[in-house]
Amino acid sequence: MSTLLIVDDDQFIREGLKRLIDWKALSIREIFEAEGSYEALELLEHCKPLIVLTDIRMPKGDGLHLIEQIRQRQWKPFVIVLSGYNDYTYVRQAMKFQVEDYLLKPVDASELTQIIATCTERLQGQFIEEQMQRESFQLLRNNILLRWAQNRIQYDQLREKLKFLQLPLLMKERYQIFLIDWHTPEEGELSRTEEQFRSFAILNSMEEALQESDRGIAFLNEQRQIIVLFTDEGQDAEAFAAGNKCWMADIAQRYGIILKTPWINHIGKVVTLPHLLHESYGEALAGCTRIVTEANEQDEAPLSNNPIIRQVELYVQQNYSDELSLQLLSMRFNVNNVYLGRLFKEETGQYFNDYLNRIRLGHAKKMLATTALKASEIATAVGFLDPNYFYRKFKQVRGISPSDYRLSINKHV
């Protein structure tokens, strides 16, 4: 919705214009009035109308003065000029200040409607473009900070990009990362909507709290967990860490109740150099990984006592990287595939595909810890045809991405 300012020294004309067309149908939610440019400039400063409809010749400040002041002050409303038949010289002068259009008095309702509709459409376009620019800037900011935390950016590049983002973070004496997780293993898989709500709500709360306290900055990792980077000048490391822990515990208690969401703080160590930030992040990730691992220690489940299912389990554990399905296994062991699927669920308590994924993910986890292979190469090596599916399943079961899991493991190396 837009706002409009009508500037004319004649009250009857102002009232007539307000009644001439259906302004609400054109997305104009509020109309301001002024008798001349002096009053109009005050309204522009305080009310910031997006469209200005102004007469040219007025005793209490003419329209040309108004338009000139609008441009000099770098305000950006759309300006439409009202003029009489003998005001053509003034209209030409007004055009030098980038007015949108002009209308001759008496004003034609259909022409005014068309001009205002064009202005509101352009305003909507500007709003969308500005919103996209803001989102693009936020995405760039988030990506740079995350690459820093994950040690995936050269120091020279980091310095230049933080300078561009106007984030003076490299000259601090101490750094510490907290990782906020909003999902407990007991909850199972969340809907995408619920994940987005929790992440967005906690990030907004943290940004507001950090801005008020001037303690640091918050951003997201690939799992939409919130990374809080604390920076410090002047305190010793022990006091810095203790203050951060106390402050975060208070924030978690206050906002967790308000947002009605789990809020678990995982704490990284204090580091004194920017290029060691990944060590703090890795330690926070390790805390998160321990919780998820404890809830998922089922990889070495005992084999079934049923002879058919026991054979299937042994075959899968030895050939997990091959193409496997109930159809293929039923042919191999000479049983009906529907019967095999039902029997497998009854004996193991899980569907065959879930069991197969768990076995493959268990081997992927070991390879992430012991090899330098890329995550996509590991996905292929353990039997996943689609790396994106592997990433989603790994995160669903382990709680973090393959790259963050590797970082948390390497932290102990």
From TrEMBL:
Superkingdom classification of source: Bacteria
GO molecular function, one term: DNA-binding transcription factor activity
Annotated positions of the 4-aspartylphosphate modification: D55
Domain HTH araC/xylS-type: 310-408
Protein keywords: Cytoplasm, DNA-binding, Phosphoprotein, Transcription, Transcription regulation, Two-component regulatory system
The name this protein goes by in its record: Response regulator
Source organism of the structure: Paenibacillus roseus
Localisation per UniProt entry: Cytoplasm
